[in-house]
Amino acid sequence: MSEDRNEMPEPEVDTRRREIAGVLTGEFQSPSPDQVLENVLENVLLFLTSRRDRNAVSLVCKSWYRAEALTRSDLFIGNCYAVSPRRAIERFRRVRSVVLKGKPRFADFNLMPPNWGAYFTPWVTAMATSYPWLEKVYLKRMFVTDRDLELLAQSFPAFKELVLVCCDGFGTSGLAGIASKCRQLRVLDLIEDEVADDEVDWISCFPESGTCLESLIFDCIECPINFEALERLVARSPSLRKLRLNRYVSIGQLYRLMIRAPQLTHLGSGSFSSSDIVAQGDQEPDYISAFAACRSLVCLSGFREIIPDYLPAIYPVCANLTSLNFSYANINTEQLKSVICHCHKLQIFWVLDSVCDEGLQAVAATCKELRELRVFPIDAREDSEGPVSEVGLQAISEGCRKLQSILYFCQRMTNAAVIAMSKNCSDLVVFRLCIMGRHRPDHITGEPMDEGFGAIVMNCKKLTRLAISGLLTDKAFSYIGKYGKLVRTLSVAFAGDSDMGLKYVLEGCPKLQKLEIRDSPFGDAALRSGLHHYYNMRFLWMSSCRLSRQGCEEIARAMPGLVVEVIRNENEEDKDGFEILYMYRSLERPRIDAPEFVTIL
Amino acid sequence: MSIPLEHDYIGLSEAPSMERASDKISSASSSTISSESEKSTALNLRETELRLGLPGSESPERKPQLGVSLFGKDLEDKTNGYSLGSLKGFVSGAKRGFSDAIDGSGKWVFSVNGGSEVDLGKGAVLFSPRGGNGVKPLGGLDNNSAQKSCMPGPAMKDVAAPSSPKPVQEKKPQASAANEHASAPAAKAQVVGWPPIRSFRKNTMASSAKNNEDAEGKSGLGCLYVKVSMDGAPYLRKVDLKTYCNYMELSSALEKMFSCFTIGQCGSHGLPGRDGLTESHLMDLLHGSEYVLTYEDKDGDWMLVGDVPWE
């Protein structure tokens, strides 16, 4: 077991504390050789930041375990139910930064009823008393209430960074608390959260004297903000480098902010359209010079309601951009071409498929440094017209040889293009292809997409994350099991023929940690084939597959360290039927905060 | 093979064939039907399937792939590589022209790949339920049929039989005839959470398209949802204007949407003969009596629908 936290006994903390205190205050008690070694080790370990390395260190021996526990300042908890707050706090005493992840990713797509869990409250309550020097909190897919935010703001005087990704449960009143009470706040990043509109002017709640804000990201907030207050805030935040506005900020307002903050490195441009209809003769601000003044700008996003006429304003910064997010910008091929031709340094590019294959060809022609590409569908339905296809993918594979991560939504694809990408882009770490029509084969040969994905796992030796789609037989899974030796995350939907598919993967992929499967014909036998591996995984999600309750109960009995949740559809009458199996390793007893539609076996 | 029903395109004889066609489609789309029975039902119903063509033209071989498009737009105009090829097989069968069958105003012109969009659109209107000749709302196969006749329309997911995509594909051309308006009112049977796009992004694209509509900016592909209310109805509906190509379709769709609230039947089967709508037509089309389509414009004035060209 790689991350077992209860194999080692709890360290004897009090003696250590006294010794450390003694060293710190200068009362020198002559330490034993062991203690010297431990002190040395702690000082060395301070430099060790990677959590995987630290986990390895903690397994060496008890003394190293203790030293590591005392020196770990960044706590990462990939599943908030895998360990309880109390246990985490008891082991790691001096934490400055906490990362917590809650709901499984498929919950983002409405596959799970709401109110499943992942509450921040028990964590913040426990940390409030135990981690007084907490500086950073990063939450992903957690349920965070305004009270939680209030408690956070009150409890940590040194608090500096709050990053909430895909969270919900709070509103602008919670933000007001953070803004007003966290005097050292440097980072307030709200990314794709659902923020309730409590009609509180949280922007005005920041301290009136200068702030130390470095990053303010609120592009997901779907309610208007007090612009004048924002303008004043930007004016009194000299350290501000990252500013991402929501769609209620017009381009005229953007201009006013930009001229106050030319030092910005990351800009989310808000709506990028004018709020009023601008008449012909009106004098519009000189957007181009505003952009030109931002000499440090490397990351541009926003464009939420873009009026393409304004696009030329960004030309001056294109040459320096390393990251460009057009994924909310409904622009066509020509409009994209006019911009992308300048973006030679671009490494991260997110775009809508409205730019068509030809737009992607233009990207391939210019962006030779591209590392990450995401192509989102403007029309996210199964049978819509697909403006991008294998042509775009092929072009990208030929032009962007350094590509490491790709997410590509399309309506039609061929094995040939996927194979080409596997050969051209050997650095691929993340390959996520979503052919939106379910069970859709190679549209030229009519064959399943097995060979394409097989080539990806075969040729991309660094691949750790894979999402498959299209018509796929068990053969595809045999390839993944055979060649996907580094794969950690696998997403499967509407794929496979039989239990063999899942067996190949569970038996073949030793590094597999996160497996999410929906609507695939895998049953209890396949589930059993992973018993040897489930303790090494963060979670397994299977929804609308061929599992039975007995099968799941069998797993629960065989593996006491797993929490096996079966989740019903809320409307379903049949108490024995279920839609979702979600199981994860845990050091704790099953959670008590589960809602009624969740049964823990 | 029996002679296809040619007579009396309006009224009862038309409805059964449409209903059978829709039965075929809905039964085929149920996930329990094997492809074999799909084929058999398809065979049976093909015979009774309504085909329309220019007067005096020959009836072609009936192939599922060459569906009838009663409503397809003129496909030559399309620059989009839309997969409407199947619809191009527009029948030139030995069918009676419409003008005979229709009393009163209006030409009923079906063109083979050369017709005007509006005319075909009128065809669409005819086959929407009037006087109780309802095309059954279809549960399963309300898929891209709506799209087939115009720019991307609402997606009706085919939930049924994911394992048999091919039969489904073939059905689409026929489906388009029957489903044109049956599918319009509500998106049926969408697969939850597929494609895997976060709702934030979905909502954002929808709302930004709507905002672009309001503002001066261009609106791209996407949806154009507007609220529709009917006096006396307990709740409002929303329609995506992009799924319709002209006022005819919109009014028919709205009529269907609100038909549950009406008691009376549609009176006339009369056809609109002109491009624009006049008030009297609207009164005929919508519930036979009282309802008129109006909208509130930017200035807050209530305007009659139909005066401004559709674009």
TrEMBL record, chain A:
GO terms for cellular component: nucleus; SCF ubiquitin ligase complex. InterPro entries: COI1_F-box, F-box-like_dom_sf, Leu-rich_rpt_Cys-con_subtyp, LRR_dom_sf, Transp_inhibit. One of its GO terms (biological process) is SCF-dependent proteasomal ubiquitin-dependent protein catabolic process. Residues 94-139 form the Transport inhibitor response domain. Residues 34-73 form the COI1 F-box domain. It is found in: Nucleus. Pathway: Protein modification; protein ubiquitination. Transmembrane segments: none annotated. Keywords: Auxin signaling pathway, Nucleus, Ubl conjugation pathway. Part of a SCF (SKP1-cullin-F-box) protein ligase complex. May interact with auxin and auxin-responsive proteins. This is Transport inhibitor response 1-like protein. It comes from Vitis rotundifolia (Muscadine grape).
Automatic annotation (TrEMBL), chain B:
Residues 24-35, 175-189 have a biased composition (Low complexity). SUPFAM superfamilies: CAD & PB1 domains. GO terms for biological process: auxin-activated signaling pathway; regulation of DNA-templated transcription. PROSITE patterns: PB1. GO terms for cellular component: nucleus. The keyword Glycosyltransferase does not apply. Homodimers and heterodimers. This is Auxin-responsive protein. It comes from the Eukaryota. Aux/IAA proteins are short-lived transcriptional factors that function as repressors of early auxin response genes at low auxin concentrations. The keyword Nucleus applies. Belongs to the Aux/IAA family. Residues 1-67, 142-189 are annotated as: Disordered. It is found in: Nucleus. Keywords: Auxin signaling pathway, Nucleus, Repressor, Transcription, Transcription regulation. InterPro entries: AUX/IAA_dom, AUX_IAA, PB1-like. Residues 223-311 form the PB1 domain.
